[in-house]
């Protein structure tokens, strides 16, 4: 079975690229045999590491973002390309990182079952904006009552490539009527729930820093890791990354609270 861990990193913000690389190093610490593919517009940043890269071209970014109007479309387009390199794909956003071996997740991925980070339930704006707009995914007219699944983590089988194509085809229309950042994950969740397919939360040993406070703590630590360790041998970087903390202790939380106090 061709099992692939995938990341997507693009743009000028160094945190996305370094976040993907540090997560990949942590992954290699917990799962040394992992096959990792990073879709990126800056392949040179990953050249020294035991990961594969898939170039995201300027033309693809323009096409997938609908002329620059919705940049999360790049994530949807690149994830579709990643899936074509795998039988089973376990995708993580760059602010997700394993704290144990997540490879057991591949066992729950099948042609009829996917997993995503978590179910957020119906979205208030979608409930009011989508009825009567005649937007469909895979022949299903969207009502806005469909649950929103978070795509920070996605486990998907290659047999569901057509579902990803159906999801991508609806993103622009959903974005235009909702004016939110979430059409990419909403459309994917709907598509993966059709025709007898199911989705569940991932349940894997993966943490994140995708909230404001967690990111404020983690971002300087991501940069500090590569400033200190970026030139040591890769094997040493993997060992150090496996022990490197990106989560906050109670003392860290207290310091953040005190800094925010007037």
UniProtKB/TrEMBL annotation:
UniProt-recorded name of the protein: Nucleotide-diphospho-sugar transferase domain-containing protein
Source organism per UniProt: Mesorhizobium caraganae
Organism placement in taxonomy: Bacteria, Pseudomonadati, Pseudomonadota, Alphaproteobacteria, Hyphomicrobiales
